């Protein structure tokens, strides 16, 4: 279905409603929840969504992490024109059609922050700042310290969301998992495999796609992971020569320049491109994005702005950044995974896939925020890094009965290709990515 356009003199909605994955209500009911201005009703929307609705001179927008949503206010003699879209280039193309593109710069676009109901008033110059109401406000440290119980609850929440997704898919459509053999993609694959058996679905529909750029470690890790569980028949290694890795194309796709996100997205782009070449009709892909953020599993030492106290004391720091009311929050890009999820979302979307990232869903994040990280780690970095594997392994055992392997953490761009090759494929300085992105708009 084509994107839904509702041009009403001062508002253009370019979002495609078919890309929402809403489990518990119709799109119309979800839109009514957003229009209600009641954050509690928006929180009741179960799934991955980006919704905008206009009421009089007010526009209300809400999104989960799983779908990006941007907007831009253009000037007209009759008043402001608001364009809402998934992508920056969609906004620019629309402005060109209207002869308004000279007003445009990508930094003037705004990303709707995940987990907030955003309200805009279309009342002319100067444009008022958006107002934010948090609709997702999970409580921290509410679970006790029993790792078995935590794991069962966390992976149980993951399985519940995956089950809803599976129920909504066409009966015989194949399902691919972007798979490295790591904890996040591994747990998503095992949960889907378990659920498909439990639901009477053919597991032959399932496949684990692993990227290998001239002998990266992930291919070996993925094989070891599945061999240990006698599931190696599901593995499909996708070989890509280094000369086909193109970070410039990826920057055009993700419309961002953060080094780690560009590098990860470049590998995801290569994998999705090759899957599409092999399987022209494949549609559904799942991934483990969000698992690191949920378990606060990033090396704090690599970021001089962070301490273990800031990570453990700030609600959803890795999901949202420092927060919409903080100076460090980027209006153009949002923060945390609210910004960074385009690394995983945009490449599959570009190649016509429908992707599903269950770890980014609020019902799963809510459980992870309830974990008593401070009690379990006593502010120790190494204890924090070890906790993710412990919890997920125990949860997979409780939910599926399987003993999941857990290998040391490795970023996608560091596992898909040998280390020396990775250094050749990417720029040393983020400014290279910034300058290239800026050049796209002259």
TrEMBL record:
GO biological process: asparagine biosynthetic process
Source organism, top-level taxon: Bacteria
GO MF entries: asparagine synthase (glutamine-hydrolyzing) activity
SUPFAM superfamilies assigned to the protein according to its UniProt record, in alphabetical order: Adenine nucleotide alpha hydrolases-like
Residue span, Asparagine synthetase domain: 172-306
Pfam families, per the entry: Asn_synthase
Protein name in the entry: Asparagine synthase (Glutamine-hydrolysing)
Source species of the chain: Fodinibius sediminis
